[in-house]
Amino acid sequence: MVSLLLLPKTPNPLSSIYTPNPFKSLNPKTLKPSKPNFKPKPHNPTTIRSVLQWNRKPQLAGDTPRVVVITSGKGGVGKTTTTANVGLSLARLGFSVVAIDADVGLRNLDLLLGLENRVNYTVVEVLNGDCRLDQALVRDKRWSNFELLCISKPRSKLPIGFGGKALIWLVDALKAREEGSPDFILIDCPAGIDAGFITAITPANEAVLVTTPDITSLRDADRVTGLLECDGIKDIKMIVNRVRTDMIKGEDMMSVLDIQEMLGLALLGVIPEDSEVIRSTNRGYPLVLNKPPTLAGLAFEQAAWRLVEQDSMQAVVVEEEPKKRGFFSFFGG
Amino acid sequence: MASVWNPQFHSISSQPSICGWKHGISSNILELRRELGLSYSRYNWVQQRTARSFLFRALSKSANSDEDKVVKTETEINGWKTSIGKLQETIKSLPPVVFVMKKDVGINFAIGLCVATTILVVAVRVYVARKVSNSRPGSVADLVRRGQLRSDRRGISRPLKYEDPFNNPLVKVGKSNSTVEMCGKVYRLAPVTLTKEQQAIHQKRRSRAYQWKRPTMFLKEGDSIPSDVDPDTVRWIPANHPFATTASEIDEGLAQNNVYQKHGVPFRIQAEHEALQRKLEALQSEQKLNKLVIDPTNAKDFERPFKHLKSHEQAGQGPSNHIGSDSSPEEMQKP
């Protein structure tokens, strides 16, 4: 398959996916796209980047562990789904991931991952001394480098003001554990801007803001972005979830570029609306693991890739009129 | 051509070679049978040849005299009628499927060959696609297929070997104008227009709009704010908050140690275990006291004297018997 290439003229040609002639730089001998030369990154002058990367592992940027909080403000926009799918995509790419469900009282991440029957201990038990931290970590049997940690079981209490410190201790303890520090610590933030939100963002260095293309979600997202910036988190990227390209084409839904214009945040990913999300929740099997992958699964993988390399989208897809299929198109043309 | 001579030929066939010919209808049919198996072109040539000769002879005969014409036409008509009758019988005896094409046989064969090739190609593609989609034999997927393992929790997917994660055959890149075809829809790529300056403008707007400080002190309603604390960092907790508690139920230092513990038994489990141990030891020590045995040589010291016999002796013996009398009831009460 031929993938799109980068434009050489962009100053930071990390992830542009727009090119006027994708076949221009095909190697005539192998018919594979030849990698163009771009301005190298400071830490690795020979790095060649392209959008739809092939045949290489993404290069981890930044200091490990990368503590990322996934938040939104508004509930139901897809934070937990994003955490589960991006986390498993990172694990598939070979990185060690610890996902923390920081919702005190309303725990859902274990359900999405299909691990609800294996959560015996939570952070509250660790704090009380009923178990050690390694006993509270639930290792996924599908990908052994992915672990889940829940803050608390339902109907249990955690003192307000205490959770933030607890998370900081947790992150320090994970850094210092014997099997090595994880590459990524993803924190699934609860909805709202209450104590749970404050707890979840305490140890984070960067944030992923999940929003949907509706005005209510955007207003909350803007507020949350302001709070994150006040708390010192400057690296904030956006994932626009539940995008309907057909409604955008019919101008019934805001386009991704409109959203970016309103919020002023770099784009980490655009996830199309997909009914497979519901089915994957029912199965406890995140949709990035589906074979063949769905569009939403592909989009989550791309977002995970960009997260690893601290990259952002430089172009978005806009639906157009389908081309007219010829008589022989069913032959596979 | 047959319709010129006899309208009956319309219902039979349009092929003039099956026309009645008084000399050799049977030979024509034999020829037809042979050539159907060989080539349609040759058959058509024969057909045209017989038709042309038939017409020629018919035209030549019409040039004779009228008398001869009348006699000859009558005999000819009779002959034709018999030949037509024979022809009809012959046609009825032929097998029902006698497909004779109008056009050239070579083109029809080529078209049939193309159709057959197409069907074969499509079948091979379907077969190959099915084969590729099935996992390799002898893998865990076979166990799942057989129902030995649960498929919903079993990861069939193989780890990525740093291949293109977007190597999806459903995604086809267009040759012009940067279009991408995915899942039956066509998409165009639109570049992102956000610049660094615009991002900075948004950050400034938010810093003006949202002033927030992280709360460091949590107070209940009615508590006073300490003098050295910034009021912006105080968080007021409503009394009816379901998960609120300001009372420190967990010692922070202890909690921190619990989080950092890497080996050994967790603190509370250890504490409970030790408490249980102590309780067990206490119980055991109490039972030891209960199981003490009485020395028969000292039993007299514990005997209770009879009142009516020894009351005077007790008065004479004094305090030594007093101790014995006090202890004897207890000895009597013990099992």
Structure description:
The complex is a heterodimer of chains A (333) and B (335). Chain A has 333 residues and is α/β, with parallel strands linked by helices. Helix content of chain A is 30%, strand content 15%. Chain A contains eleven helices and nine strands. Chain A has helices at 79-92, 109-113, 123-128, 133-136, 163-175, 195-201, 215-230, 245-249, 256-263, 276-283, 295-308, and strands at 66-71, 97-101, 138-139, 146-150, 184-188, 206-211, 235-243, 266-272, 315-320. Chain A has an eight-stranded mixed β-sheet with strand order 3-4-2-5-1-6-7-8, with helices on both faces. In chain A, α1 (79-92) packs across α11 (295-308) and α5 packs parallel to α6 (195-201). Chain A is globular, with a radius of gyration of 21 Å. Mean pLDDT of chain A is 81; it is low at 1-51. Chain B is built from 13 helices and five strands. In chain B, the strands form two sheets. In chain B, strands 1-2-3 form a three-stranded antiparallel β-sheet, with no helix packed on it. In chain B, β2 (179-182) and β3 form a beta hairpin. The radius of gyration of chain B is 59 Å and the shape is elongated. The chains are: A alpha/beta (333), B mainly alpha (335). At the A-B interface, α3, α4, α5, α7 and α9 of A face α6, β1, β2, β3 and α8 of B. β9 (315-320) of chain A pairs antiparallel with β3 (185-191) of chain B.
